[in-house]
Amino acid sequence: MQKIIAVTVMLFLVVGLSGCSDMSQTGKSTLVGGAGGAAGGALIGALAGNAALGTAIGAGVGVAGGFLYGKSKEAQQNAYQQGYQAGQQSR
Fold first, then answer.
1. Residue 63: C-alpha distances to residues 14, 41, 57, 86 (Å)
2. Is the pTM of this model over 0.85?
3. Among 27, 31, 52, 87, which has the highest number of CB atoms less than 10 A from its own CB?
């Protein structure tokens, strides 16, 4: 059962990350967070006796964390760009 979960997680990572080149920062972070959370949740769930529940919980937490991280980075980049453009205009 653990091999099936590991192969499934790896398959999702490979397929999911192969199309990331044109994704936004938030999209990439959400995807990576969900995949990492699912993998970590599956591992912890397998140790605790319920890998499926651990995977579901880990994926949910990972998606939420990845989304929030991505939004934060995008806001940071937007603020930088606005400051840079303001500096260029004041020259």
1. 17, 12, 10, 34
2. no
3. 31
Sign of CA dihedral 59, 14, 68, 40: positive
In the chain, what are the domain boundaries? 2-6+23-85
> How far from chain centre, in Å, is Cα 40?
12
3-state secondary structure of 50: coil
Find the length of the chain.
91
What does the pLDDT read at residue 20? 63
Q: Which residue has the tokens 């994926």?
A: 59
Contact 33, 67 (CB under 8 A): yes
Contact assessment for residue 32 and residue 66, using Cβ atoms and an 8 Å cutoff: yes
